[in-house]
Amino acid sequence: MRKINYPLIISDFDGTLLGSDGAVSDATKRKIDEYIAAGGTFGICTGRMFTSILPRARELGLKGLVASYQGSVITDIESGKLLVDGYLPADEAAEICKVFERLDLHTHVYTLNEFYVNRRDEALSLYEKICNVKGNVVEEEPLSGLVLRKALKIRKVLAMVYAEDKKRIFENVLKALGEKFYVTYSAANLVEVTSRAYSKGTAVKFMADYYGVPIERTIAAGDSLNDLPMLQAAGLGLAVKNADEALKDKAQSFPFTNDEDAIGKIIETYGLAKE
């Protein structure tokens, strides 16, 4: 059996571990299994909601921890027990919603297990299909009002935008909220706001400590700006070839895309010792 160089590898999900076809390739699955059999720990850290990523982690046969909501929620895969729950109180979440409302954005607000959305359109239907979730459409009141009225604990506020508008909207949201909250983006059309106290970087540090792995012996891989904190936190941070240019400018690049088994090749190149 091969030895391991890095005992802990943490991957983003969409655009990194997941191929464009919506699946993890058989080749990458085999490499993950080989890495785990050799004694390594493989984890996922995603912006997806808890109920979307948990079944996917279980499908891969992973055990241990999975991080969701940009690292603000960390859960035990087998038991579903919460170890970290970095929610936004209702008043802070409503403050974010009001900024999104002024900008007239297609908005989602997420509790632990469900999300509310202010409009139904084709973009929402596609999002629901990809993530295997169903949104609660709220049309009778602003989402800010709903959050306050129900005193909801919100894990993330998200705006779905056109790709060509993302940079402008991200900058506007960052200007309005960036001093108080963590503002980032994922994929080509998602601008997201979470608690400033949490990120994928804090999740990597928590998971390394949980497993007793020195942070310098961890690998993190991703494809979008929201992955930057974990690439900076890990001992080795890698941006896959299909990554956003903003991430490539600030992280070490890896010369394969998510559709070229990037994670499997990272495991082979760095995670496992040479035979």
Note down, in words, how this protein is organized.
This protein is α/β, with parallel strands linked by helices. It has two domains: 8-85 and 198-271, HAD superfamily/HAD-like (Rossmann fold, 3-Layer(aba) Sandwich), CATH 3.40.50.1000; 90-195, Hypothetical Protein, Haloacid Dehalogenase-like Hydrolase, Chain: A, domain 2. The protein contains ten helices and 14 strands. Strand 12, helix 8 and strand 13 form a beta-alpha-beta unit. Helix 1 (26-37) runs parallel beside helix 10 (262-271) and helix 3 (90-102) runs antiparallel to helix 5 (143-150). The protein is globular, with a radius of gyration of 18 Å.
Total domain modules: 2
The neighbouring-strand order within the major sheet is 5-4-3-2-1-12-13-14
- How many beta-strand segments? 14
Instruction: Determine the N-to-C terminus distance.
Output: 9 Å
The CATH architecture term of the largest domain is 3-Layer(aba) Sandwich
If you average the pLDDT, what whole number results?
A: 95
CATH class of the largest domain: Alpha Beta
Task: Report the total helices.
Answer: 10
* Helical percentage: 25-40%
Radius of gyration from the alpha-carbon trace, in angstroms:
18 Å
Oligomer: single chain
- Main sheet? 8 strands, mixed
Instruction: Give me the CATH fold name of the largest domain.
Output: Rossmann fold
